Each structure stands twice: as C-alpha cells, then as structure tokens.
Amino acid sequence: MKSSRDTAITKKARKGMESPVSQEPQHQTPGWKRFFAHIGPGFLVSLAYLDPGNLETDLQAGANHRYELLWVILIGLIFALIIQSLSANLGVTTEYPIFVKYCLWLVAELAVIAADIPEVIGTAFALNILFYVPVWAGVLLTGLSTLILLGLQRYGIRKLELLISVLVFLMAACYFAEVSYVKPPAAEVMKGLFVPRLQGDSATGDAISLLGALVMPHNLFLHSALVLSRKTPSSTKGINDACRYFLLESGFALFVALLINIAVVSVSGAVCATTDLSAEDSDRCSDLTLNSASFLLKNVLGKSSSIIYGISLLASGQSSAITGTYAGQYIMQGFLDIKMRIWLRNLVTRCIAICPSLIVAIIGGTTGSGRLIIIASMILSFELPFALVPLLKFSSSSTKMGPHKNSIYIIVISWVLGLGVIGINIYYLSTRFVTWIIHSSLPKPVTVLIGVVVFPAMVFYVMSLIYLMFRKDTVVTFDEKLEASMEQGMHGVSGGAEVVPCREDLARVRLQ
C-alpha cells in the first residue's frame, strides 16, 4: 500500500466524486439530511453479495438442500456487515515494504479478475437468454456497456450510485415476484435461517461455497475508497457520525441483499423439491447453472419465466461489473499511485478483467464459462485473507485509527469470525486438493509433479499470512495533536471569521 499522505483516489477524481452535501454548519444540518448525504457506497458494495457467482451458489444450495443452508447466508452477511463497516471506517492506507506492497497489489488485481469473471459471464448468459446473443459476443458487449455506464462518473458519483440502487431494487422486484408465485413454506424458511444444519454428503461443501461467494476481497478496497467521496467534518464527532451513518446505510443495503439471497434459495428449493418434475428437470436441478435456471418458473410463469430471470440476471451482472471495474481502478491507483485519466484507467482495468472470460467463452462455450465461475470462486477464497488480515489489523490499531479504533468487543468478534472464515476456506480447499491428488486420473509422474509444485506453494501461502498477521507496524497514520488542533480550529474564531480546517492537512487523520 502507499504512504498515508496519498489517498486511494486523486484530488481531481475526488473533487468530481464529491456529493452535493449541504454547506450549512454541521450543528445546523438535521441528522436525517446528513444521513441521506451518506447513502450510496453501501449499495455499490452490496452488489458483491448479489453478483452472478452468488446467485449460482444460491441456486445449487436450494436445489440440493432446500432451505437448510439459509443460516449460512445469514451468518455470512452479518460478518459482511462487520467487515464492510470496518472497511468504511478505516479509509486510510499505510506503508509496507516495497516487495510486500507489489505482492499485495498483484493479489488484489487477481481478486478483481476472479470476481469479474462471474459478473461478465452472468451478463453474457442474460443477453443469451433475452436476445440469443452468443456468449462470447455477450462478453464483449458487457465490457462495452460497462464502460458506457461508468461514463456517469463525469456527472458525479451520486448519479452512478443512483443507477446501481435502481438495478438492485430491480433485482429485488424480480426475485420477490418469483417467490410470490412459488410460495415456499414460511415455517421451513424461518427454520432454515435460524437452525444450523449440515445434512448430507455435499452440505459442508455447499455451505463453504455459499460463505466463500459472499465475502469478496476486492469489496474491502472498494468500500474504503468510496467513502472518500463524502465530505466529512475533520473532528472526532464528525468522523464518528460519518462512521455511524455508513454503518446504517450498509446495514440497510446488506439487508436487501439478504432478502434477495433468501428469495433465490427459496425459489430453487421450492421448485426442485416438488415430486412432479420431469426427468429432464430433475437432471437440471442436480446441476443448476446460471444459463439453465430459468426453467425453475416455467410451470407457473410460462414463457415469461425466461424473461424475468434474464432481466434479474442482467441487472445482477451489469451492476456488479460496474463495481468490479470501480474496484480495479481504485486498487491500481491506491497501490501503485498511477496517475491517469479516469476513462483510460477504466479501459485498462476492464480489458484486464474480461480477457479470461472472453478466451474461455470462445474456446469452451457455455459449459466452459460455467466451469470458469467455479474456478474463480476458489481463487477468491484463497485471496480473501490478504485483504481481510490487513483490514482487521489496521482497524484495531491505535497508530492507524487513534480514538476511532475498534473496541475490544469488535476486535474479538471480528478476529474470531475472520480467522474462522480463513481457516474454513484453507482447510476445505486444501483437503479438496489432496483428495484430487489421491484420486487423480492423470499419469502418476504428472500428478507427482503437480504435488511437488503446489505443496511448497501452500506452505508459502500460510507463511505469508502469518507474516501479515504478526508483522509489527510502526507507521503512524493518525496524528492526535493535529486532529486536536483542527477540532479546536472548527470552534475558534480568528479575526471575527470562523477558522475552517483544511481537509488536506488532515491526510494523516483520514478516517471517513
């Protein structure tokens, strides 16, 4: 990461992103008005929990286990709310050794590519369902349309946030309409939400897939950058108020995301649990994909089932692709401090992200694209700790956060949940690899060679995480004296005029 003097976005970009917050003195602005000024980042961030990769794992979990794994979604989104609020509160960067900084940048860029694969392919599937566009052409159209929609940045970040919010509620309307037709039993849905169960051979794997698909590493970088678009008073009270508003806004956005995920699982579980399915539909339920899931409602909605499903998938994929590109541009500039025009940065990050999807779509078609989504989810599970560990460390550090650091309760809860998610992902993916090695159908020399390469890489991976967790960080990004003097300046008078602190002077106290 870069020094504390630099922000995740340039001054010029931030100026274009700043929302039209009232210039009234903070004590005269009503609380509800200040709250609405902070609405927006949470909805952009919530799309990571509604992207096509999440929808596919939801569909498969519902088809295999009906409502039994809904509690995993509930726990996952509660944990997501905690870490996203920490990410919003942090809003600072710190100094790492140059080698570590570039390694973290490469990991973050790979996370953006992996996260973008389901989004791009999901949008391409939606275009195929609605307009019969070939998947490879849909990938190209997705990249082009994303760049066009990102052009809304020139009119201010609030316009783009409004577009994303509309797409989120469009998704909600589609899936809630589907639930109203299917009518899953409310008692079983509530039981699935609040009674943890893991029944069946594939339940553990599906539960981990659900959890891994919910928490996206690039989303943590994105939230820290987005909150910089708001004008926050440079005082302890102003910062605390902003943190509270962002928490409330994120909570509402993630609650909507929770309802949509529950709706997807419920629709899949209700339809695939019926006894009057044809043999073809039964086979589809056993291997649901984004491209085949529209059949779930054909018995109740007829031909319109494909249209409604396609619209919801298009809204999910397109809006998620926008936020993925957004995250990519912030990561590139935040780690490398590269100064380039916004449209050029968007073009570079978009091209980097869609290349794997385009290649696989051309070579492997629909089947290959579906498998690529699974591979991308596994990559994201491995990369999550490299974003999560620094976040938990910095948000709990007095040298980074000063009086705004996490309380002891939040520190304990966040570390327990964070290490739990990391441990589950590593254990599951490692055991899956060992199982594959043992039962591999490849020639034995090839299998041995793969093992020789991968096992040392796994050891290096674990050692890298240990280094990040226990490395002593001495770089101070919070200046208590500077904040105190700035806070006094806000209430002081010099020559009959109110002294307003310069925001740039508080770069070392940059907690949004």
Topology:
Elements: H1 11-17, H2 31-37, H3 41-46, H4 52-65, H5 70-90, H6 98-131, H7 135-150, H8 157-182, H9 186-194, H10 203-214, H11 217-226, H12 236-272, H13 279-286, H14 298-301, H15 304-336, H16 342-395, H17 398-401, H18 408-439, H19 444-470, H20 480-491, E1 493-494, E2 497-498
Antiparallel strand pairs: 1-2
Helix pairs in contact: 4-10, 4-12, 5-9, 5-10, 5-11, 5-12, 5-16, 6-7, 6-15, 6-16, 7-15, 7-16, 8-12, 8-15, 10-18, 11-15, 11-16, 15-16, 16-18
Structural overview:
The chain has 512 residues and is mostly helical. It has a single domain, classed as Amino acid/polyamine transporter I (Up-down Bundle). It is built from 20 helices and two strands. The protein has helices at 11-17, 31-37, 41-46, 52-65, 70-90, 98-131, 135-150, 157-182, 186-194, 203-214, 217-226, 236-272, 279-286, 298-301, 304-336, 342-395, 398-401, 408-439, 444-470, 480-491, and strands at 493-494, 497-498. The chain has a two-stranded antiparallel ribbon with strand order 1-2. A hairpin with a 2-residue loop joins strand 1 and strand 2. The longest helix is centred in the last third of the chain and has 54 residues, at 342-395. The model is unreliable at 1-27 and 490-512 (pLDDT under 50).
Instruction: Kindly report the spatial arrangement of strands forming the biggest sheet.
Output: 1-2
- C-alpha geometry: globular
CATH C-level class is Mainly Alpha
Briefly note the structural class of the backbone: mainly alpha
Number of helices: 20
CATH superfamily: Amino acid/polyamine transporter I
Helix content: over 70%
Note the gap between the termini: 18 Å
Which strand-content bin applies to the residues?
under 5%
The averaged pLDDT comes out at: 76
CATH architecture: Up-down Bundle
Rg over alpha carbons: 23 Å
Order of helices and strands: HHHHHHHHHHHHHHHHHHHHEE
Number of domains: 1
Tell me the total number of β-strands: 2
